[in-house]
Write a structure and sequence with these properties.
single chain; 391 residues; eight-stranded parallel sheet; 16 strands; binds 3,4-dihydroxybenzoic acid
């Protein structure tokens, strides 16, 4: 077992490993959260809560591409309501066996329909912590949900963003606050958002980049209709297709935010190597959403192991060593990369590809047999001496 250290901090909160779950899939109920708590994930983060329990948009509201390279959702915030996620019984059920020993940090995500709803939920959380529930370590305020029909993404509206941060700052909550941000597809727009957040650096301890890429559409060629039923099929895009936008947002947020505000990366992480890339771009921790959705909580054990292997192979002894250490492009670096690619054994073929190759050779064999039979039947043979003797 390698002794690579993956400990980190997010907004001052210590995590045993720098990988945990994203709010969203498999986070709505204590049974699902318990599986995260029992895994190698460094923390547990709840589904985005609204003030009251709600059922969300009609089904089908999620879609996965056949090649697993993209997913979409337009769930409309189905959740059990804030009181469920902060109830000590829910946290007990989540932490299970872990409870008696080292409890994992429990983060609560909120996504109020209005500023008043968000303030109400923050008040309830503050009250709960004051009453002695110390396992709730932080709130991730979701300013980026793209799927509430008729409501634009809050963090794209800079007046609203400033207004919400100003109002919350007046409340002087003592718990660390994080912000879940949408992807910015323009560097200047990202800088404007970072500048506003910087004005509240005494309150915002970390930002989480990125939420799904909103306003995406997947179309079924058979039914000639969107795969997702609500909102004209428009939905948030996630999975590997979102990774490059996520890396760019993490990198630029790191460059433009004040140093004391941490960046948490999320978007398309499938492997330990993906985590490594997010660390290089400046994330102190990462969240896993779509892969957790597809693979279940065992993905945290796999990704953590893979990350340790990557760090070990590259000669690092901890994840914190590489945070923000992205190098500028150089000729030497590109050459090193080309050589490494050449030295690498060819990737193992998947069972599917291997199957395709077997099929190819079987077809070739069949064609050869048919050709041989046709030649035998129709092509005149040369007259031999024996034939002449018989005449
Ligand atoms: C939903 C989607 C999001 O991207 C998010 O941040 C919160 C909720 C949803 O559709 O339920």
């Amino acid at each position: 077992m390698s002794n690579i250290n993956l400990e980190t901090t997010v907004g001052g909160i210590p995590l045993s490993t720098c990988v945990y779950n994203a709010s969203g899939p498999r986070t709505g109920a204590s049974q699902a959260l318990a599986k995260i708590a029992a895994s190698s994930a460094g923390a547990v983060l709840t589904k985005s809560a609204t003030l009251e329990k709600q059922n969300g948009n009609p089904l089908p509201r999620v879609w996965h591409a056949d090649d697993s390279k993209a997913s979409m959702n337009s769930e409309g915030l189905p959740n059990s309501g804030i009181d469920y996620y902060i109830a000590s019984a829910t946290i007990d059920e989540t932490m299970g066996e872990v409870s008696g020993t080292t409890t994992k940090p429990y983060f609560v995500s909120i996504s109020g329909k209005t500023l008043a709803d968000n303030l109400d939920m923050l008040d309830r959380i503050a009250k709960k912590i004051d009453s002695g529930e110390k396992r709730i370590v932080s709130v991730e305020l979701n300013l980026a949900c793209p799927n509430v029909i008729g409501k634009p993404i809050i963090a794209y509206d800079y007046d609203q963003l400033r207004d919400i941060l100003e109002t919350i700052s007046e409340k002087k909550y003592t718990f660390p606050l994080g912000l879940k941000m949408p992807p910015y597809l323009d560097g200047k727009q990202l800088q404007l958002a970072a500048a506003i957040i910087n004005e509240y650096s005494d309150m915002v301890r970390y930002v989480v980049c990125i939420n799904t890429i909103g306003n995406a559409l997947s179309v079924d060629p058979v039914s000639e209709a969107p795969y997702i039923s609500s909102n004209g099929g428009l939905a948030g895009l996630s999975g590997p297709a979102a990774k490059y936008t996520a890396l760019a947002n993490v990198r630029q947020m790191r460059q433009h935010l004040k140093e004391e505000i941490d960046v948490v990366g999320v978007g398309g992480i499938e492997t330990g190597e993906d985590v490594f890339l997010f660390l290089l771009c400046g994330a102190t921790a990462v969240q896993v959403g779509t892969t957790h959705w597809i693979e279940g909580a065992k993905c945290f054990d796999r990704i953590v192991k893979e990350l340790k292997d990557v760090l070990k192979e590259k000669g690092y002894s901890s994840s914190s060593e590489v945070v923000g250490k992205l190098k500028p492009w150089s000729k030497e670096g590109a050459k090193k990369s080309r050589l490494a690619k050449k030295a690498k054994p060819p990737p193992k073929r998947t069972a599917k590809e291997a199957g395709t190759l077997t099929e190819f050779f079987a077809n070739m064999f069949m064609m050869a047999v048919i050709l041989w039979l046709l030649i035998d039947k129709y092509v005149p043979k040369p007259v031999t001496k024996a034939d002449l003797d018989e005449m």
